[in-house]
Specification:
Length: 703
């Protein structure tokens, strides 16, 4: 079998993939920039500081202000008249305490506004951030100082015994507000420091989803407080008790310790609960979406880079790094359909690509399990710590043990809400509002992460078990059985069937390069028909004649557009990196057709991944030949994040080389495959059209 033809016409250098090269001096097409962005070379901590931290601060800032409002609306002291804290009488606060508390609340609200205006790019970063940070720290320090007065001035000059003094819910809301103010001020200080050091721009890189979450949180808190004010007037409850009732209602816990008794209250509760539950669902949905998808590609890219380095170190340590060397002498060797020996550069690159895909798959699986582990750990921490706080809060009034609190947290967290255990103390009610807003959304995130791991394993195992028992599928019985045994033994038995029930290619030891990948796709040897080849060559000859000023033979309109029609009808058959590319308008039409196809991939809900043959085809369209080892290099363990890597040619004019398992390959980075390909195709089309425009202008200027 003769070697496949390359894109260059007679006399061109082998490996020329530029269909516009005949334009000569009127068009100079440089080699394309192959590498993706540098997200995989940048520590993820800077992304967290520039994106996640501001989002957390923008979300928790309004929560802290809402608690600060609760700390202002009622006195901090109560006189106990019975064993029921609900019957305690409020004792007025000193004027100075109320005034200072109001001032810190006003400053905190101003700090929130400056942060939101900065995120909306209405106020500059250098002005808004210092005001926000100083304001929140001021509120935290003032609240701590006021709370400390509980050990001194607030316990003096009482006209009743100190044993009858208890702290109201407002006092405890002040504690939670101070804690939140200090946390968000600290993380914003860290973010501001990173921007000053130049680790990221002095601007928040927040997506629309992140900003939506902050606005949804503000709306939900405002809705909760307004509803509490209305129902407190209707039912005659205390305002803070009504805040607790509204929180229990909107989270659908329904303890039953507070229920509307008036007809008006019951009637208004129905629309209030419906709107509130929907609003809460939107907030939890946004939290889940941001946790699952926000920055996932950037974090995954960094994890892929670490896994890639470990893989290359392992290969080098075992003395097998020679398998990553380009095959200089085998670029044009003939290939047979049954040849699995990877005896030429194209097959070696295909094996490299398979290895990179394996690295990506392993990294994706590890990321999912890490996300599940982190969310489970956060869930357990909230559960355990919450149980400790509730135990101490209710010890005096209900003598809860740790197990009672542990049980109560589970009943509340899962929104079962039996009502056999409910908080009655002021500390318990205030902490429940704080705890529910912080903790309950985490179970939604945990369930989402479990759906990608544990639930998926159970679902797939059920299907596999059904395939070999009572519900046989379309696959062969023995193949399904081997696949099930391989998964159960973690690949120790029937390793070839571990990833799929029908492996395409069995391991081959005929060549040492086969060690790069255990499974490869079958080679696609679809060729253009002889008529299509002749028409393409005729189109090229006429383009050359036109450039040389020679008269060309007139063609019928049907004949002139026949190749374009072939492209239109059989574009899938043209997607072969070994075929010649059309030239002129046909090549432009081909680029437009591929741009439309890739644009459709971008609209898909699931990220589109391309096979090696598809990648080879798209790389060929932008001027990169996977058969040519001149632009291929041996992968390096560590990459550099310097600006020099952005260029495709070094200072001495040498072509920059890359590898599919190197740090400069298109699969590395936060940019998706479809986005990368679409961007390069658009750039290629723009270059070709610009060259054609220059050629036409030059042609008209000639006598």
């Amino acid at each position: 079998m003769s070697p496949p033809e390359r894109d260059g016409r007679d006399g061109d250098a082998p490996g020329n993939t530029d269909p516009e090269s005949h334009l000569g001096k009127t068009y100079s097409h440089g080699k394309p920039k192959i590498d993706n962005d540098k997200a995989h070379l940048q520590p993820t901590r800077w992304w967290f500081l520039s994106s996640v931290f501001p989002m957390v601060a923008g979300t928790l800032g309004p929560v802290a202000s809402a608690f600060s409002i609760c700390a202002l609306v009622a006195p901090w002291r109560q006189k106990l008249v019975s064993e029921d804290p609900d019957e305690a009488i409020y004792v007025g606060d000193p004027v100075w305490l109320t005034a200072i508390n109001a001032v810190q609340l006003a400053i905190a609200l101003i700090s929130n506004l400056f942060l939101l205006f900065n995120m909306a790019r209405r106020i500059r970063f250098g002005i808004a951030q210092p005001i926000t940070i100083v304001g929140w720290y001021f509120s935290a320090i003032v609240l701590v100082c006021l709370l400390c007065t509980g050990a001194g001035p607030l316990t003096e000059d009482l006209d009743f015994p100190k044993d009858d003094l208890i702290w109201s819910q407002s006092f405890y809301y002040g504690i939670w507000a101070a804690i939140l103010y200090f946390i968000i001020a600290t993380i914003m200080t860290i973010t501001f420091w990173g921007a000053l050091k130049g680790h990221y721009p002095k601007d928040f890189i927040l997506t629309m989803s992140q900003r939506t979450l902050m606005l949804q949180t503000i709306s939900l808190l405002l809705y909760l407080h307004v509803g509490a004010l209305v129902f407190s007037k209707i039912e005659g409850w205390g305002y803070l008790d009504t805040v607790y009732w509204a929180d229990v209602t909107l989270f659908t816990v329904g303890f039953g310790d507070f229920t509307p008794t008036t007809n008006l209250g019951r009637a208004l509760m129905i629309p209030y609960a419906i709107v509130g539950i929907i609003s809460l669902g939107l907030v939890i949905g946004s939290v889940r979406s941001l946790t699952m998808d926000g920055g996932k590609r950037r974090v995954l890219a960094r994890m892929e880079e670490k896994r890639r380095r470990r893989t290359l170190r392992t290969i080098t340590r075992r003395g097998n790094d020679d398998i990553l060397e380009p095959i200089e002498d085998g670029a044009d060797l003939p290939r047979e359909l049954t040849d699995k020996s990877l005896s030429n550069e194209y097959e070696r690159r295909k094996a490299e690509f398979a290895l990179m895909r394996k690295i990506q798959a392993m990294t994706s699986t590890r990321r999912k399990w890490m996300a599940l582990g982190i969310s489970a750990m956060v869930w357990v921490v909230f559960w355990m710590v919450g149980a400790v706080v509730f135990m101490h809060a209710e010890k005096r009034w209900q003598d809860w043990s740790y197990f009672d609190s542990f049980y109560f947290c589970f009943i509340a967290w899962t929104t079962i809400g039996y009502g056999d255990f409910t908080p009655v103390s002021n500390a318990g009610k205030a902490f429940f509002v704080f705890w529910s807003l912080m903790a309950l959304p985490t179970i939604t995130v945990l369930i989402s992460h479990a759906g990608d791991t544990v639930v998926k394993i159970i679902r797939d195992s059920t299907i596999r078990l059904g395939n070999v028992t009572i519900l046989p599928g379309e696959e062969d019985f023995m193949a399904s059985f081997k696949h099930l045994i391989s998964r159960m033994t973690l690949g120790k038995f029937f390793h070839a069937h571990y990833d799929t029930e029908t492996p395409l290619v069995v391991d081959s030891k005929r060549h040492h390069l086969q060690r790069l990948a255990s499974v490869m796709e079958e080679l696609n040897e679809d060729d253009l028909s002889e008529q299509e080849r002749e028409e393409a060559e005729e189109s090229e000859r006429e383009e050359e004649s036109e450039l040389r000023g020679r008269p060309k033979h007139p063609r019928r309109e049907s004949q002139a557009s026949s190749f374009t029609a072939k492209v239109r009808r059989s574009l899938s058959k043209l997607r072969n990196a070994e075929h010649k590319l059309p030239t002129g308008a046909d090549f432009h039409f081909l680029l437009i057709s591929e741009i439309r196809a890739v644009a459709k991939h971008l609209k898909e809900s699931k990220t589109h991944s391309y096979s090696f043959d598809e990648w080879a085809w798209y790389l060929k369209l932008i001027g990169e030949d996977e058969h040519n080892p001149q632009t291929h290099g041996k992968a390096k363990v560590k990459g550099t994040n310097q600006g020099s890597s952005d260029t495709t040619e070094s200072a001495n004019g040498e072509v920059s080389k890359w590898s599919w398992v190197g740090h400069r390959n298109p699969l590395m980075g936060s940019q998706g495959e479809s986005e990368w390909i679409l961007e390069k195709l658009v750039d290629r089309l723009q270059e070709c059209l610009s060259a054609e425009s220059r050629r036409q202008r030059k042609k008209h200027k000639e006598p």
